[in-house]
């Protein structure tokens, strides 16, 4: 609805604030557009010649996609850069309006049903349009379309108009584009209407400038908001008897809505008293009483809550919003619009060419930008027209605003005091030649010319001559690491070093120049390597202050912007929580409300930027918080590049598998169902296989609730799989996203004293029977260097239905903790401690950990042997390219949270002095790439880039309504119909079998059954 009557009121009372213009005049502007309003308009307006909505051959509505695609192309054609903003959760005050809209749609539906046989086509078309309602699927399809077009979009926390206004106020865009006038009430400096209207209507774009409206109305913003509420808005019904003119008069007279209502209540009381006296005088009159006219204020009119929504709307801070226009993904767009929705391929490809051209070229700067002064706060002030406008520093254009396109003519008729100096007819300067002045002028010109030549020619030549001769090597090496051709700033502190003749040109190493030479080698921490020297291949010393890690800002790291829902974290991970200061990387956890959560933490990843296989990941860390207070969850770990931490769709069916065998271990729930095994194979896998204490919380004795290994050796040929293909076995190589934790820090009681420890683990699947590696293992599976039942021992947590964990507990440094060390000076001994994980992939590999700089424990390939009870084959240590993750969060999933002792000490910080990776120069399988030839990831990730970049997708298949990415699960040859199955499924499991829910077991009875978990767990091997 917007604001009732506001447009006509402004036309009458503040005409200079409204200007009608050709869309071409918006060349070079960035505009935030109310996507939800546009979606509704397109569903109503974009129709076939017979008035029906546009549809694909399969009967799917495509009006919204057609509207967004072609109207966006039109704007791009005119040099406009749009960003779309979608509605989030509506405020409670809007519920009544939404219910009324629902009622009107239902009324229209009933009328259409009643009149379908008697009404004319025009009437039925009107009724059909009144029933239009945008759905979640419409929103999802439009968002997918915009992503493929390279057009930025965001979902507002609440109202889209409010977020558009916030972006305009923050200088991210020039104006907000919407048909709703309440966008002005939310405070947008400039509102553009008719921006997405059909070109056939030839409607001019209407620009409304808020500052001019306030100036002509002679009222501050607070009064303007009160005026809008009095006119009637989405949150409040209009007051009967108060029109636009009356509303303006009341606000001007009484100054605020509070005073207006008080005055109206007084008038109503007097009217009521007069009415009562008239009634008494006419007691004897016949006939019905007359209805009293005049102003009527609704009984429930919560204007104060509405005022708060307008003045302090729930929005994302505009300064933190990152807007990026990217080249279109042409082939994916053709697949989506043409193959799936029936669009013309020729038109779509021509549209993509326009989009690519618009992104690839630098647009000509706007003329008016040359006549605008910029103040220190980033707002540009035009002294002739007294207008504040925006300046976006990231723009290629001079994005300023000037009313007059020819500002040099503005004061042509104004006489100035020094005009005589420029008029040769006044006081001609006869015999005024001054040689010194001429020499000075010529000399100045010569100096300026030389300075300009030095700036644009001399300096680049000098820079090229003195440039580091290995710059090209560094760039080439960086591109080999970064699969998507990521770029990095010139002069970024990366040096390439070949530290051994054993490393050839294909083995790239990236070493921070600040890394001391003494750190270029490190002894292997694995006991069976006999102290072999590993070579440094990567390091980041974090010595440059002020680094940030928003997407695209760093060649190796990226901080995520998401909620880590999988572990029920209390915080939102935000890039603002990750930065460098005083020689270390800081990851901060503070009580900062973010996305309806009470805390803000940080997670930084090297996903798809830097990966390695085989070697040592070592870090120097100061843990957050206290050494004796539980609750924080700091972690440093690594994961296979095919799964991106925090992006649930990419992890379903990949994490935490580490398996290259084709058998029952690749199936959903590690169970085969068919006519021969209607209760499942292996026997008792769902009734006893998981009868352990940690499954009591799940009320089940089932071994596994995993969906199955999606990219397994059992995947049928021709299915969607990253490869490679094993030509000898005629099978795919099994692929997944295994996890190795350098540490997860926790506080536990030791002899009645709380101390900080680290859990150092290898997470894997498929599982042993009851997650036990020793019941069928007669050889040594692991080794603790200093076994102690209190300080260095096997973790009692060995797994549950979601993962198996080969985990050891070791003492952390009790000194290198935030509120023990009390400073982050990296040179002070004891402020930081070293932790590491060394691994070698394959079934015969190993993982070895250190804690506080000392060897802690190690685990051998014998721990991963076949299991005769769960019927799984030999597991393996990771052969995938592994990327690095560093994060700090808070969750009950990892243990008790001592709120009483933590709450007064926020913020907490984990400080990382450095991160280093070492590799064996004699290991032919060691490399530093995310896309190795024999374990490729790039093509697969590119095929599913939406899943890897949209954290809202939580499952691989599924539907948009349940957060599904919507991809089919690959066929598995172990299921009933195997590779001959004709049915495709978006859900895991056998598409030919109807699964039953696992039997529920009361928590107290999960381990109370013969054959349940006993004291033999992790026997002392």
UniProtKB/TrEMBL annotation:
Its EC number is 3.1.-.-. It is a single-pass type II membrane protein. It comes from the Eukaryota. Keywords: Cell wall biogenesis/degradation, DNA damage, DNA repair, DNA replication, Endonuclease, Exonuclease, Glycoprotein, Hydrolase, Magnesium, Membrane, Metal-binding, Mitochondrion, Nuclease, Nucleus, Phosphoprotein, Signal-anchor, Transmembrane, Transmembrane helix. CDD domains: H3TH_FEN1-Euk, PIN_FEN1. Residues 269-278 have a biased composition (Basic and acidic residues). GO terms for molecular function: 5'-3' exonuclease activity; 5'-flap endonuclease activity; DNA binding; glucosidase activity; magnesium ion binding. It is found in: Membrane; Nucleus, Nucleolus; Nucleus, Nucleoplasm; Mitochondrion. Residues 269-293 are annotated as: Disordered. Residues 497-923 form the GH16 domain. GO terms for cellular component: endoplasmic reticulum membrane; mitochondrion; nucleolus; nucleoplasm; plasma membrane. PROSITE patterns: GH16_2, XPG_1. Binds 2 magnesium ions per subunit. They probably participate in the reaction catalyzed by the enzyme. May bind an additional third magnesium ion after substrate binding. Its main location: membrane. The chain crosses the membrane at residues 438-462. GO terms for biological process: (1->6)-beta-D-glucan biosynthetic process; base-excision repair; DNA replication, removal of RNA primer; fungal-type cell wall organization. The keyword Cytoplasm does not apply. Its cofactor is Mg(2+). Structure-specific nuclease with 5'-flap endonuclease and 5'-3' exonuclease activities involved in DNA replication and repair. During DNA replication, cleaves the 5'-overhanging flap structure that is generated by displacement synthesis when DNA polymerase encounters the 5'-end of a downstream Okazaki fragment. It enters the flap from the 5'-end and then tracks to cleave the flap base, leaving a nick for ligation. Also involved in the long patch base excision repair (LP-BER) pathway, by cleaving within the apurinic/apyrimidinic (AP) site-terminated flap. Belongs to the XPG/RAD2 endonuclease family. FEN1 subfamily. This is Flap endonuclease 1.
């Amino acid at each position: 609805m917007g604001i009732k009557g506001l447009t006509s009121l402004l036309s009458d009372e503040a005409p200079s604030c409204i200007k009608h213009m050709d869309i071409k005049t918006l060349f070079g502007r960035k505009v935030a557009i109310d996507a939800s309003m546009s979606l509704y308009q397109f569903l109503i307006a974009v129709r076939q010649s017979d008035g029906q909505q546009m549809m694909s051959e399969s009967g799917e509505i495509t009006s919204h996609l057609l509207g967004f695609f072609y109207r966006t192309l039109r704007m791009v054609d005119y040099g406009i850069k749009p960003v779309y903003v979608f509605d989030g959760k509506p405020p409670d005050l809007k519920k009544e309006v939404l219910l009324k809209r629902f009622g009107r749609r239902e009324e229209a539906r009933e009328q259409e049903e009643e009149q379908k046989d008697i009404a004319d086509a025009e009437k039925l078309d009107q009724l059909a349009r009144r029933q239009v309602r945008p759905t979640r699927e419409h929103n999802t399809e439009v968002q997918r379309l915009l992503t493929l077009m390279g057009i930025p979009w965001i979902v507002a926390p609440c109202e889209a108009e409010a977020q558009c206004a916030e972006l305009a106020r923050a200088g991210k865009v020039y104006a907000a584009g919407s048909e709703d006038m309440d966008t002005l009430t939310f405070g947008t400096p400039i509102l553009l209407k008719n921006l997405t209207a059909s070109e056939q209507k030839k409607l001019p774009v209407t620009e409304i400038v808020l500052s001019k409206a306030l100036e002509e109305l002679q009222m501050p913003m607070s009064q303007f908001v009160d005026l809008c509420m009095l006119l009637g808005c989405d949150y409040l019904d209009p007051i009967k008897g108060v029109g636009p003119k009356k509303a303006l008069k009341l606000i001007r007279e009484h100054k605020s809505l509070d005073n207006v209502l008080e005055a109206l209540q007084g008038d109503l009381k007097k009217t009521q008293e007069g009415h009562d006296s008239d009634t008494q005088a006419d007691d004897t009159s016949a006939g019905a009483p007359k209805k009293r006219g005049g102003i009527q204020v609704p009984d429930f009119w919560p204007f104060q809550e509405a005022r708060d929504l307008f003045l302090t709307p729930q929005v994302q801070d505009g300064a933190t919003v990152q807007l990026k226009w990217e080249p279109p993904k042409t082939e994916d767009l053709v697949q989506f619009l043409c193959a799936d929705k029936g669009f013309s391929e020729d038109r779509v490809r021509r549209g993509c060419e326009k989009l690519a051209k618009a992104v690839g070229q630098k647009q000509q700067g706007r003329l008016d930008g040359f006549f605008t002064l910029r103040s220190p706060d980033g707002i540009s002030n035009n002294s002739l027209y007294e207008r504040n406008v925006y300046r976006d520093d990231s723009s290629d254009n001079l994005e300023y605003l000037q009313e007059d396109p020819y500002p040099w003519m503005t004061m042509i008729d104004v006489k100035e005091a020094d005009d005589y100096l420029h008029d040769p007819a006044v006081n001609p300067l006869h015999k005024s030649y001054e040689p010194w002045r001429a020499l000075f002028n010529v000399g100045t010109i010569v100096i300026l010319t030389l300075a300009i030549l030095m700036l644009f020619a001399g300096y680049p030549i000098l820079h090229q001559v003195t440039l580091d001769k290995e710059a090209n090597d560094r760039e080439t090496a960086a591109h080999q690491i970064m699969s998507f051709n990521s770029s990095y700033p010139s002069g970024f502190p990366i040096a390439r070093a070949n530290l051994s003749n054993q490393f050839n040109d294909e083995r790239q190493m990236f070493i921070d120049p600040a890394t001391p030479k003494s750190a270029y080698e490190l002894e292997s921490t694995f006991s069976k390597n006999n102290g072999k020297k590993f070579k440094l291949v990567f390091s980041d010393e974090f010595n440059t202050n002020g680094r940030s890690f928003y997407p695209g800002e760093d060649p190796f790291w990226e901080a995520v912007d998401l909620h880590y829902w999988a572990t029920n974290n209390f915080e939102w991970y935000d890039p603002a929580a990750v930065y460098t200061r005083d020689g270390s990387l800081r990851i901060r956890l503070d009580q900062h409300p973010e996305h309806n959560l009470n805390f803000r933490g940080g997670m930084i990843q090297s996903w798809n930027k830097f990966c390695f296989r085989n070697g040592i990941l070592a870090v120097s860390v100061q843990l957050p918080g206290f050494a004796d207070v539980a609750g924080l969850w700091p972690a440093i770990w690594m994961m296979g590049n095919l799964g991106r931490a925090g992006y649930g769709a990419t992890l379903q069916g990949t994490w935490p598998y580490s398996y290259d065998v084709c058998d029952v271990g690749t199936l959903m729930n590690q169970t085969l169902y068919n006519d021969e095994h209607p209760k499942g194979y292996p026997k008792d896998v769902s009734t006893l296989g998981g009868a352990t204490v940690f499954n009591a919380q799940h009320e089940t004795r089932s071994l596994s609730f995993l969906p199955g290994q999606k990219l397994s050796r059992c995947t049928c040929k021709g299915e969607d799989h990253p490869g490679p293909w094993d030509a000898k076995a005629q099978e795919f190589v099994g692929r997944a996203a295994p996890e190795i934790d350098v540490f997860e820090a926790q506080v536990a009681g030791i002899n009645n004293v709380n101390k900080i420890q680290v859990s150092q683990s290898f997470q894997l699947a498929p599982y042993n029977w009851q997650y036990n590696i020793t019941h069928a293992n007669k050889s040594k599976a692991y080794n603790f260097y200093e076994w102690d039942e209190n300080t260095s021992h096997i973790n009692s947590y060995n797994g549950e239905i979601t993962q198996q964990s080969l985990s050891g507990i070791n003492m952390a440094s009790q000194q290198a903790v935030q509120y023990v060390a009390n400073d982050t000076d990296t040179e002070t001994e004891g402020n930081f401690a070293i932790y590491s994980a060394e691994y070698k992939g394959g079934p015969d590999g190993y993982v070895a950990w250190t804690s506080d700089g000392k060897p802690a424990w190690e685990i051998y390939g014998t721990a991963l042997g076949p299991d005769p009870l769960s019927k799984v084959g030999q597991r393996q240590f990771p052969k995938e390219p592994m990327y690095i993750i560093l994060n700090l969060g808070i969750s009950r999933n990892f243990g008790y949270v001592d709120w009483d002792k933590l709450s007064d000490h926020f913020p907490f910080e984990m400080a990382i002095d450095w991160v280093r990776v070492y590799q064996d120069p004699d290991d032919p399988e060691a490399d530093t790439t995310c896309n190795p030839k024999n374990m490729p990831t790039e093509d697969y990730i590119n095929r599913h880039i939406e899943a890897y970049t949209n954290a809202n997708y939580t499952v691989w298949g599924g539907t948009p309504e349940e957060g599904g990415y919507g991809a089919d699960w690959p066929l598995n040859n172990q299921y009933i119909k195997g590779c001959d199955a004709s049915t495709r499924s978006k859900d895991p499991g056998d598409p030919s079998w109807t699964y039953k829910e696992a039997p529920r077991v009361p928590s107290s009875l999960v381990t109370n059954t013969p054959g349940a978990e006993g004291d033999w767990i992790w026997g002392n091997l």
